[in-house]
Design brief:
alpha/beta, 47% helix, 9 helices, five-stranded mixed beta sheet, 17% strand, Beta-carbonic Anhydrase, Chain A, single chain
Length: 207
């Protein structure tokens, strides 16, 4: 209980510090949120969205799960995307993975992990799609890093295949879907050069 009390103490101190530096911050924040960005990232505690891109509360809408996966049967993730696109009218959806991802590593291991293996199946499918390319790499570390990147690219494609995003594009809504990856060792983001902004940029099989 002492640990939890410490968290409440930290919260009060944080609140006081914010009010000193910006007296109207919480009053303005409570009225509405108007973010331009939806961040879909990993649950890893070392990858906090706001801090990485130095944005304040209210400036980015966030969904996180193990290995930043977008599955078409995941109503939680789809509901977040729908709310962000249709209600908040975000202009950018960012899928952000990270090197050293435990979910990616577990998906590459050849032993049972229990319940989570059902979730990791999605990442193993990514490996299967790109197996020839991955097997051509010289070592496990290179394959691990490459799969972290390829998983992001596949999740960008999964987002673009949702009826939510395609419906927004058909309605003429400004919306771009980006794929990024974060390096834990230096705190730097890398753009994976995947950015889809309309239906014309998708292949016929993705529509």
């Amino acid at each position: 209980m002492r640990i939890l009390k410490t968290l409440f103490d930290k919260n009060r101190q944080w609140s006081e510090n914010v009010k000193k530096s910006d007296p109207g911050f919480f009053e303005a924040l409570a009225k509405q949120q108007n973010p331009e960005y939806l961040w879909i990232g990993c649950s890893d505690s070392r990858v906090p969205a706001n801090q990485i891109i130095d944005l304040q509360p209210g400036e980015i809408f966030v969904h996180r799960n193990i290995a930043n996966v977008v599955v078409h049967t995941d109503l939680n993730c789809l509901s977040v995307i729908q709310y962000a696109v249709e209600v908040l009218k975000v202009k950018h959806i960012i899928v952000c993975g990270h090197y050293g991802c435990g979910g990616i590593m577990a998906a590459m291991e050849d032993h049972d992990h229990g319940l989570i293996d059902n979730w990791l199946r999605n990442i193993r499918d990514v490996y299967r799609f790109h197996e020839q390319r991955l097997q051509a790499l010289p070592g496990d570390r290179e394959r691990f890093d490459a799969l972290c990147e390829l998983n992001v690219v596949e999740q960008v494609n999964n987002i673009c295949q949702t009826t939510i995003v395609q419906g927004a594009w058909r309605a003429g809504q400004e919306l771009a879907v980006h794929g990024w990856i974060y390096n834990l060792s230096d705190g730097i983001l890398k753009d994976l050069d995947v950015c889809i902004t309309n239906l014309d940029e998708l292949s016929a099989t993705q529509r």
